[in-house]
Amino acid sequence: MDSTPAKQVSLPPAPHTQHPDGAFTSPQHIRELAEKADVVTVEIEHVDADVLAQVQADGLCAVQPAPGTIKLIQDKYLQKQHLQARGIAVAPFAAVPEHPTHEDWQTLERELGMPLMVKSRTMAYDGKGNSPLKSLAADDVEQTIKTLVGSAGGNKLYAEAWAPFVKEVAVMVVRNVAGQVRSYDAVETIHKDSILRVCFAPLRVSGGKGMKSEVNKRAKELAESAVATLDGAGIFGVEMFLMPDGTSLSSLQAFLTRTLDPDDPSHPAVHVGALMINEIAPRPHNSGHHTIEACETSQFENHLRAILSLPLGSTALRVPSAAMLNLIGTSESMTPIEDACRAAYEVPGATVHLYGKKECRRGRKMGHITVTGSSDAQVRERIRPILDAMPDLAK
Ligand code: ATP
Ligand code: MG
Ligand code: MG
């Protein structure tokens, strides 16, 4: 497609820069790309990981991160099992049988409590694949099945215990081919209806500077230890839940003991901590978009350095404070997005990024705005007029 966003920024046509025109799941096009490239990487995990493994095995090109990592992450249930088995804290979860009966749901309720977050195991993004289940009333269950499985069926589900988090936190971790690892400071991510709306860097937590650096340190450690369990080079977005009472572990302990039996040998190494991993993205991630303006090296540059066997760049913030606001479509009209961009052009420290997607749709990420400033308070002031002009999905 000529309108494809990547083509709008590509180099002038030359044999090695020509884009194969095809779906990113198409085996034929993946092979065609592999034949032209030294290294192939991904910016979405829903690709054909088996074909990527094959082209690498055939010696056509290197693939980073490892195709096995991409394949594992594609299935959120397997991803969670993998992390839990390696002692990484995750929200308690369980598989949902293919045609769940009322008894199956009751078992899940007993194991995980209520409400449940029911999720599609595969092909999920921007919350499309999540359905909160508030009760086992027939209507609620039917609605969840309808939302996630649809009439076509065949979509495998699993359920997570509801995480009563106080904040969502994310850390971008980058590892190069030689194994050098760096992580960016933790950010606060604010989702509404399972879609990321706003990201604040650095993390805002109450309890003073000491608490902030303690949570930041623990978030970075947890994210790095999770990424250490995955093969391959590149950048990884690690999404986490910060549970109530960031200072003590007691509330999380209570939450976990409700759902996990500490004597159960299948959960021997779960580290009870105030942070739990939600999921990992094996690629540049929305929680790292601010790094373009706010950090010494952007997540995109560090990803390229990582997969091209180069030393990693500094991940330090180069501004005291930043926020990233997603521009999400509310309908087919681009007008509300343009209005928010116009407001941003009036704001000092604001940078507009539009992705060049041809069609605007409700719930589609069309771009983002980054705002930097000399303090959290200044950034809060600066984003206000943009947020006021921003399309609201609730409308
Ligand atoms: P992404 O666009 O990040 O890939 P996704 O579609 O894969 O999103 P998740 O990251 O699993 O979906 O969930 C999206 C959001 O839904 C989370 O950021 C969080 O706000 C909420 N959420 C997910 N799991 C839970 C849970 N167990 N308890 C409470 N809220 C949850
Ligand atoms: Mg996801
Ligand atoms: Mg997510």
What descriptive keywords fit this protein?
single chain, 15 strands, binds adenosine-5'-triphosphate, alpha+beta, nine-stranded antiparallel beta sheet, four-stranded antiparallel beta sheet, binds magnesium ion, 395 residues, 13 helices
Description of the molecule:
With 395 residues, this protein is of the alpha+beta class. Helix content is 33%, strand content 21%. The chain is built from 13 helices and 15 strands. The strands form 3 sheets. Strands 7, 8, 9, 10, 11, 12, 13, 14 and 15 form a 9-stranded antiparallel β-sheet that branches. Strands 3-6-4-5 form a 4-stranded antiparallel β-sheet, sandwiched between helices. Strands 1-2 form a two-stranded parallel sheet. Helix 2 runs parallel beside helix 3 (49-57) and helix 3 packs antiparallel against helix 4 (67-74). The two termini are 32 Å apart. Mean pLDDT is 88; it is low at 246-273. One magnesium ion binds next to strand 12. It comes from Naganishia onofrii.
Q: Can you describe this structure in just a few lines?
A:
The chain has 395 residues and is an alpha+beta fold.
> Which small compounds were modeled alongside the protein?
adenosine-5'-triphosphate, magnesium ion
Count the DSSP helices: 13
Q: Helix/strand/pairing class, anyone?
A: alpha+beta
Largest sheet: 9 strands, antiparallel
Shape: globular
Based on the structure, what is the oligomeric state of the protein chains? single chain
For the record, give the distance between the C-alpha atoms at the N and C termini, rounded to a whole number. 32 Å
Identify low-pLDDT runs: 246-273
Task: Spell the H/E element sequence.
Answer: HHEHEHHEHEEHEEEEEHEHEHHEHEEH
Give the strand tally: 15
**Residues in helix, %:** 25-40%
Radius of gyration: 21 Å
Beta-strand proportion: 15-25%
Average pLDDT figure: 88
